[in-house]
């Protein structure tokens, strides 16, 4: 498999109910993961881009999505935001500003 153009990491950390830091899974990360996987399959993006689930990425105001090589971190991503990340960032090389964590956090 050739090196992907970009690599998308989706936090699926689960700390359980009542944990003081919360978790991306409690915030709906499973739906985000499924929507990215579906978009990759439907658009035939596997191979061109890589998709991985991961544990905690640091900040706890998720669900979080991290895109490399740019190192762009998205927060509070919803299922409806996935198409914008795919279209604008992955395919269009323009990060989605409205979803990015502020620079002082990431």
Could you explain how this protein is built, in words?
By secondary structure, the protein is of the alpha+beta class. The protein has a single domain (11-99), classed as Glutaredoxin (3-Layer(aba) Sandwich), CATH 3.40.30. Helices cover 23% and strands 18% of the residues. It is built from 2 helices and 4 strands; from the N terminus they run E-H-E-E-E-H. The model has no long low-confidence stretch (mean pLDDT 90).
Short description:
With 106 residues, this protein is α+β, with helices and mostly antiparallel strands. The protein is 23% helix and 18% strand.
Give the beta-strand count: 4
The number of distinct structural domains comes to 1
Proportion of strand residues: 15-25%
Q: Which architecture per CATH?
A: 3-Layer(aba) Sandwich
CATH superfamily: Glutaredoxin
Structural class call reads alpha+beta
Helix content: 10-25%
Count of helix runs = 2
What does the overall shape look like?
Answer: globular
Q: Give the C-alpha Rg.
A: 13 Å
For this structure, the CATH topology is: Glutaredoxin
Q: What low-confidence regions span 5 or more consecutive residues with pLDDT below 50?
A: none
Instruction: Give me the side-by-side strand order of the main sheet.
Output: 2-1-3-4
Under CATH at level 1, the class stands as Alpha Beta
Q: What distance separates the N and C termini?
A: 30 Å
The run of helices and strands is EHEEEH
Largest sheet: 4 strands, mixed
Mean pLDDT: 90
Write the layout of secondary structure elements.
Blueprint: E1 6-11, H1 29-42, E2 49-54, E3 65-68, E4 72-74, H2 82-91
Parallel strand pairs: 1-2
Antiparallel strand pairs: 1-3, 3-4
């Amino acid at each position: 498999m050739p090196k992907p153009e970009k690599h998308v990491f989706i936090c699926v950390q689960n700390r359980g109910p009542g944990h003081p830091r919360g978790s991306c899974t409690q915030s709906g990360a499973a739906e985000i993961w499924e929507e990215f996987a579906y978009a990759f399959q439907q658009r035939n993006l596997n191979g061109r881009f890589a998709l991985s689930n991961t544990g905690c990425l640091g900040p706890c105001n998720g669900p979080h999505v991290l895109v490399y090589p740019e190192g762009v971190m998205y927060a509070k991503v919803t299922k409806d935001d996935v198409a914008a990340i795919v279209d604008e960032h992955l395919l269009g090389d323009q990060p989605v500003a409205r979803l990015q964590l502020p620079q002082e956090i990431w």
